[in-house]
């Protein structure tokens, strides 16, 4: 079983990479965002980014920095197919997944203004925010010394492959294909 982890900045195209791997390469998809949204709904909290960060940090603080991705890994391991775990946000998640087997980390990034335009277009329940709030959210999640909180900068630095997504969807697909050529599936 090959596990591809996806990390990256807000609105960079992580979901587009996931869609490609699922639709074109037959990977199973496990989403930190979906896991957290279930937890948020169960708790009766507002479905927004603040709730996601709060719940994720609480779960990591109580059970360890890799708790959520470990839960997704255990679910994936029961099935045994190649899979993607989307939205790696702490170095502890990377460490834990690297210990579990064949794990490769992709990071996706793009220009901030382009990324903001993308989240406005996708208009999910957590994306209805101003550009200023978008940048503040990203800065909050970019760097911390607390192992239980988001540290996107450290995750991106630990990526095996960094995909720049300033171009078209097709450009991103080509970049993914080039990476897959280097990986034995």
Structural class: alpha/beta
Distance between the termini: 9 Å
Q: What is the highest CATH level, the class?
A: Alpha Beta
Cα Rg: 16 Å
SSE succession = EHEHHHEHEHHHEH
Bulk shape: globular
Residues in helices, as a percent range: 55-70%
For the largest beta-sheet, the strand count, sense and barrel status come to: 5 strands, parallel
Give the strand order, joined by hyphens, for the main sheet: 2-3-1-4-5
Average of pLDDT: 92
How large a portion of the residues is in β-strands, by DSSP E? Answer: 5-15%
SS elements, strand count: 5
| CATH T-level topology | Rossmann fold
Number of domains: 1
What is the CATH superfamily label? Answer: P-loop containing nucleotide triphosphate hydrolases
Point out poorly predicted stretches.
none
Tell me what the CATH architecture is: 3-Layer(aba) Sandwich
Give an account of the 3D structure.
With 185 residues, this protein is an alpha/beta fold. It has one domain (2-182): 3-Layer(aba) Sandwich (Rossmann fold). The protein contains 9 helices and 5 strands. It has a 5-stranded parallel beta sheet, with helices on both faces. The mean pLDDT is 92.
């Amino acid at each position: 079983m090959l596990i591809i982890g996806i990390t990256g900045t807000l609105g960079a195209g992580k979901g587009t990479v996931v869609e490609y791997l699922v639709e074109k390469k037959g990977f199973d998809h496990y989403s930190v965002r979906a896991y957290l949204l279930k937890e948020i709904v169960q708790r009766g909290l507002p479905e927004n980014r603040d709730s996601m960060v709060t719940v994720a940090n609480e779960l990591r603080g109580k059970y360890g920095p890799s708790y959520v991705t470990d839960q997704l890994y255990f679910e994936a391991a029961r099935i045994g197919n190649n899979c993607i775990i989307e939205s790696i946000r702490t170095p502890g998640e990377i460490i834990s997944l690297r210990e579990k087997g064949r794990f490769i980390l992709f990071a996706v990034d793009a220009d901030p203004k382009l990324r903001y335009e993308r989240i406005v277009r996708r208009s999910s329940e957590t994306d209805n925010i101003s550009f200023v709030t978008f940048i503040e959210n990203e800065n909050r999640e970019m760097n911390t010394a607390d192992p239980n909180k988001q540290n996107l900068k450290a995750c991106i630095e630990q990526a095996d492959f960094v995909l720049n997504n300033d171009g078209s969807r097709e450009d991103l697909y080509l970049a993914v294909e080039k990476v897959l050529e280097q990986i034995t599936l």
